[in-house]
User: Fold these one by one.
Assistant:
Number 1:
Amino acid sequence: MHFQGSHILNIGQFERSDVDQLFAVADAMRPYAHRDKVTRVLDGAILGSMFFEASTRTRISFGSAFNLLGGQVRETTGFESTAIAKGESLYDTARVLSGYSDVIVMRHPAEGSVAEFAAGSRVPVINGGDGANEHPTQALLDLFTIRSELHSRKREIDDLRIAMVGDLRYGRTVHSLSRLLSLYKNVEIRLVSPTELRMPGDIVEALRSSGHKVIETEVLEEGIAGVDIVYSTRLQEERFASPADADLYRGRFRLNQSVYTANCEPNTVIMHPLPRDSREGARELDDDLNDNPNLAIFRQSDNGVLVRMALFAIILDVVDQVSAHASKVNWYTERRF
Ligand code: CP
């Protein structure tokens, strides 16, 4: 794999063989992520973590992944706690922080901002989400989850039928996942959204150019019938001019147990990048699905640690050294995985 020392900025950097290798490394990280063993392979290394937009999963799982490999994390959240609030440029910030870190992960509300930051960095930079543009590591963990869920159903990613539901215009996770699926064969993608929140045309065109069948619809029941995966998304209200503008679409597509039972196959997998919006009036993925064994959302968020550990190991070129730095776990570990 050719990502040693590389920035990870968009999903277009990946070939199918890269994804296969990444997933093999992620599988090998399971004993460490599941606390069966400890490795100190990144002892002394520092991750700079800069999140200028709200995050639970991406920020914490990147930090946990680095800690699980033995490295340390220095993090900052929000513009107001950095010198960007005093007018410092992304370039200067990158020059400075890359003197303190071995690798940096960054989330920023503006499209293209992480690439701009990377241009000033002397160490690899990973895109943790740049506005409505891309969220490449989410797409990788999503596909890792899809592969895992399909394998337990004796299926492969080729010939997948997937419905993406919700705000496909501003949802960066579905942009990156769609681009990633372009690497596979004979995929059917149902795009379920309000007309105003459709998937960007260039992404739809790229999917069709890859030979995939793309169906766009505003009817949830039509979109989710007979698919292998329903990938629900939250209305990205932070990208709208005002909450009132977002209200026009809030609660438009709600998947709950009765809708699932009436329209989906008995083993259709339910995914969501999270957070789901559990407030009254939203609920695109209802809590009454929590006991449905096909609800994969928490297996999906767990997989984020495996995939991010694998990325760090590859970027910092320690894949072959992980087990040489391993030891037994000293503390009581309840089986959580
Ligand atoms: N999926 C995802 O990006 O979640 P966070 O916003 O919590 O990081």
Number 2:
Amino acid sequence: MLAGKRVLVIIGGGIAAFKSLDLIRRLRERGATVTPVLTRAAEEFVTPLSTSALAGRKVYRDLFDLTDEAEMGHIELSRDADLLVVAPCTADLMAKMAGGHANDLASTVLLATDKRVLIAPAMNMRMWQHPATQRNLATLGGDGVLVVGPNEGDMACGEHGPGRMAEPLEIVAGVEAALMDGPLKGRHVLVTSGPTHEPIDPVRFIANRSSGTQGTAVARVLSALGARVTFVTGPASVAPPGGVEVVRVETARQMLAAVQAALPADAAVFAAAVADWRMAEDQPSKMKKDGSGKVPVLEFAENPDILATVSRMGEGRPGLVVGFAAETDEVIAHATAKRARKGCDWIVANDVSPETGIMGGSENAVTLISADGAEDWPRMGKDRVAARLAARIAKALT
Ligand code: C5P
């Protein structure tokens, strides 16, 4: 429920703008007050009249409108909300936000705000995949901007792929997660997720089969319980949840740096399947066959152990540090030893033998190992494991 919450909805110029009218309606149904802002391009897709009729309020349109400025200046407009939502957020709006531009009302409000910002990107899939957009996405994630979507599917331009704006109810869920007063409100929780990729040379890398499903589910539930979640993810095959701060990394060393930059945190959950080793030397050019039949021998160096580093950091250590242990035999004995070795508070241990179908699958059967001993949980969906773990974290922190 969003009763009493004030949401500023900035509608960008894209075909998905028509869905933002439904978004406004859904937010108001839940009790939110919605102030709409239209970019000039948005007015090509939806009219100011329909927007203000659905919002039940005046729609703001132009930076240099003296009447608007007299009623409510753009600085006040940017602060007079609990959350700013940009939907659809075009590639151009993302670029403006990442670059700190302020050349129209929407970008000025976004630069002047002291509130959290949630964007629902929508654009052609090539525009979404373009390195410039991906760079901007990473910058915005680092700035604490929350991202919902885009989804994959048929696009108005006739192509199929990632770029469709998230559905209004998915955006509403992101808004609720960002504004909700759950038991973890005011708490900051760090979650790592996904595999890491360790380059062998500029075109090859070492990876593992982690999909990021469990870490993503944990982050989603923690956020739904009201926590501010920083989600540091390797190249996972599932999309990150909405409503969290996403920091994308590739290697273990980048993941450690991102984790350290995100601290302090009240709790940290290390669900990532971090590569234990990387190449001992950086290879600046592609390794080639030389025709002699000789094969290269790769020399590895050990990666930093992020969980152990954070568990043993002394001052600034999160109050609760949770690790995962993927084992194939003697799960409890190995995981108990791992908890002691790494210095974390809890270990969520699971059996990832191929016959369990757990790694990369949708179910998990875990044992929670803490100072109190080992507690077996029945096999259940990764979402339910996440819900149970997040509830335990909430209990431990409150
Ligand atoms: O040692 P092992 O990889 O089995 O430990 C698993 C736990 O340690 C997971 O929580 C994982 O996220 C974390 N880990 C880490 N940094 C590493 C290796 C593992 O944070 N380099």
